[in-house]
């Protein structure tokens, strides 16, 4: 579904050049649960940004369902992201003046095939918090709202950058369980960036990065349920 051919990304700041991605080749299939591991600065976020069209490549090609992303205009990329991709970050990025329901609704606005918001609220266990505001929720609950918001548009791929970075084990596993369910139920492709080795036990494929390169791709023979992964 997503293919990267010889993708490189160089950042230039003044005289300094940083080769954030070096000649990356990678295929991500529909319905895969992918975990990207690597030390700080190894290029994980850059990889996510170029795959999702948030940032341009310096050289190489990226195709999504046969369409060449690297040829799209800025406007086409915005449309592409809106129609196909969901994002979850460590920060919940909720709008404080909107209720839980309204925050999730924001995710489905303008999209072609939105999911039912009350159904999503039930899925993330927040039906009772429908009319609350973000400041009335715990961190874990806020992250579940942001997961529901990114799912509302029924994306083909959901990109998660340290989605549980700010949460304790119990809340993290709740979030991971939702992602896992979504992956099996709807065949949504899930790509998770993390420092947490335990999360790799849930993956179909683990991609290890170092210094802008993919150093290893491991295919897990068996996957663990979110609640059974090791932690800490
Ligand atoms: N906008 C930018 N301008 C210049 N250099 C950048 C920019 N974004 C990232 N870099 C550099 O590219 C390299 C890869 O960064 P990246 O954020 O992709 O790493 P990462 O693996 O996601 O790190 P972390 O785990 O700390 O988030 C780093 O050396 C970083 O300093």
TrEMBL record:
<dbReference type="GO" id="GO:0022857">
    <property type="term" value="F:transmembrane transporter activity"/>
</dbReference>
<dbReference type="InterPro" id="IPR003593">
    <property type="entry name" value="AAA+_ATPase"/>
</dbReference>
<dbReference type="GO" id="GO:0005886">
    <property type="term" value="C:plasma membrane"/>
</dbReference>
<dbReference type="GO" id="GO:0098796">
    <property type="term" value="C:membrane protein complex"/>
</dbReference>
<dbReference type="Pfam" id="PF00005">
    <property type="entry name" value="ABC_tran"/>
</dbReference>
<dbReference type="GO" id="GO:0016887">
    <property type="term" value="F:ATP hydrolysis activity"/>
</dbReference>
<dbReference type="InterPro" id="IPR017911">
    <property type="entry name" value="MacB-like_ATP-bd"/>
</dbReference>
<dbReference type="InterPro" id="IPR027417">
    <property type="entry name" value="P-loop_NTPase"/>
</dbReference>
<keyword id="KW-0547">Nucleotide-binding</keyword>
<feature type="domain" description="ABC transporter">
    <location>
        <begin position="2"/>
        <end position="230"/>
    </location>
</feature>
<dbReference type="InterPro" id="IPR017871">
    <property type="entry name" value="ABC_transporter-like_CS"/>
</dbReference>
<dbReference type="InterPro" id="IPR015854">
    <property type="entry name" value="ABC_transpr_LolD-like"/>
</dbReference>
<dbReference type="GO" id="GO:0005524">
    <property type="term" value="F:ATP binding"/>
</dbReference>
<protein>
    <submittedName>
        <fullName>Putative ABC transport system ATP-binding protein</fullName>
    </submittedName>
</protein>
<keyword id="KW-0813">Transport</keyword>
<keyword id="KW-0067">ATP-binding</keyword>
<dbReference type="InterPro" id="IPR003439">
    <property type="entry name" value="ABC_transporter-like_ATP-bd"/>
</dbReference>
